[in-house]
Design goal:
With 330 residues, this protein is an alpha/beta fold. It contains ten helices and 13 strands.
């Protein structure tokens, strides 16, 4: 089955033999109602296969434009800003059998949803919830000097953002336990996919964002990344195996320096559009010799326990797929 939106060619197998399929009268199983707290890049993509299988998908967003876009594809979208609105306005949350949390912590505030614990707990304590997943980041490990790290490696978050992520991980783990659930914590590498990749950055000739400028000095450190199609695989596999809730690194097989990734992307584009190469000088490329630093994140647990077979095991196959999908008339 296609994941849709150019994600890939297959989804992860469901060991329970079709646990993702809808059941019950009128084609709707009330045990298959997912609520996306934050319907961003990842959540939008994972909603596609679920909608195709008859799930009821609800989610939050912060603008009317996004709300209309999400409803167009079949998502029951709700305007919600965790820093301004009350959770009691999300009445359908109490009916959720599955909840995916992808709202990031806010600077100086922490996880805005956990700050609403007194409202959140009663909404989800109706006995309906079967699965809870929080999308975190491999940034919680900090700089490990280029060492390979797995989920048992001591965390050492350095930035305020990473520290907030780790606090949120602990908060959602404890919240799940209060509901009798084992929370899935997915530590994601750098997320890319159609419309959001090194190729898109180069082709759009965008000025570097503040985050990208801060990363310039670390262009040659090892970092992990993951195609959104493979994140979707991990999420779908965890839904099919709800008792396996724990921490999982969700990254590909090939940690690589950012400069190496952009050099490969530039090479792909230059083969077809050589006249554009001169426009890419704003991206730091240089000699792609890796400096020992940052970390190489292991995905062994994800592949072994969740049975994920990566569609895009390296940035090369992921970027090649995105590039091949582009029209030759760019």
């Amino acid at each position: 089955m296609q994941l849709g939106l150019g994600l890939g060619h297959r989804v992860a197998a469901t060991p329970s033999g079709g646990a993702l399929e809808a059941e019950g009268p009128n084609g709707m199983d009330h045990r298959r109602r997912i609520f996306l707290l934050g319907t961003g890049f990842v959540a939008r993509h994972v909603s596609i296969p679920l909608l195709q299988q008859g799930w009821h998908v609800s989610g939050t967003c912060t603008t009317s434009l996004k709300k209309n876009q999400l409803r167009t594809v079949g998502i029951d979208a709700h305007l919600f800003d965790a820093n301004r609105h009350k959770l009691t306005e999300l009445e359908t949350l109490r009916d959720a059998s599955h909840v995916l949390v992808s709202i990031p912590p806010a600077y100086g505030i922490g996880d805005p949803l956990l700050n609403l614990h007194q409202e959140l707990h009663p909404l989800l304590n109706y006995g309906n919830l079967q699965w809870l997943c929080y999308l975190s980041s491999t940034s919680v490990y900090g700089d490990c000097g280029g060492a390979w790290v797995d989920e048992d490696y001591p965390v050492n978050p350095r930035t305020e953002s990473a520290k907030s992520r780790y606090e949120a991980e602990k908060g959602w783990t404890h919240f799940g336990l209060s509901l009798g659930l084992s929370t899935f914590i997915f530590r994601l590498g750098g997320i890319y996919g159609p419309g959001r990749s090194a190729l898109d950055t180069l082709m759009k000739r965008k000025d570097l964002s503040e985050n990208q400028k801060r990363r310039d000095s670390r262009d040659f450190y090892y970092t992990g990344r993951i195609h959104v199609a493979d994140i979707c695989q991990a999420i779908l596999s965890s839904i099919a195996n709800p008792n396996l809730g724990k921490i999982y690194n969700v990254v590909d097989d090939y940690p690589a320096p950012r400069a190496e990734v952009f050099a490969f992307a530039r090479d792909l584009i230059s083969r077809r559009y050589p006249e554009m190469v001169s426009d890419f000088n704003h991206v730091s490329l240089g000699d792609v010799q890796a400096i020992i630093g940052e970390k190489c994140v292991s995905n062994t647990r994800m592949k072994k326990e969740l049975g994920v077979q990566l569609i895009y095991p390296s940035y090369k196959s992921g970027l090649q797929s995105i590039f091949d999908s582009w029209s030759s008339s760019l």
